[in-house]
Amino acid sequence: MEPQVVDHLEKSRYEIFAGDDGTETAGFAEYHLSEGELAFIHTETEPRFAGRGLGGLLARGALDDARARGLRVLPYCPFIRGWIGKHPEYADLVPDARRAHFGL
């Protein structure tokens, strides 16, 4: 089963589900949503799922959702910030005036 990224609004985090039956939480990206800005604060992948590219799928899924919802992104989380740095097509999600602050 393909990994699925889901926004759990009540937990303020995106989660990626994987495993044989696709029901195991393989990782998450915590955020704070305020006034049209999605501030990513922490991303974590379960050690047993490491090395499978799930962190990147999680970042892409969360950022694609932010784009679809018209949200601006503040990548305080080093993983999300680094991922955007490697995928400049997502840099436009970070407000122009804040990109230098995040090194983007």
Automatic annotation (TrEMBL):
Record-annotated N-acetyltransferase domain positions: 1-104, 6-95
UniProt superkingdom: Bacteria
Pfam families from the UniProt entry: Acetyltransf_CG
SUPFAM superfamilies for this protein: Acyl-CoA N-acyltransferases (Nat)
Cited InterPro entries: Acyl_CoA_acyltransferase, Gcn5-rel_NAT, GNAT_dom, GNAT_YJDJ
Signal peptide (from-to): none
PANTHER family for this protein: BSR4717 PROTEIN, PROTEIN NATD1
Protein known as: GNAT family N-acetyltransferase
Species name: Streptomyces enissocaesilis
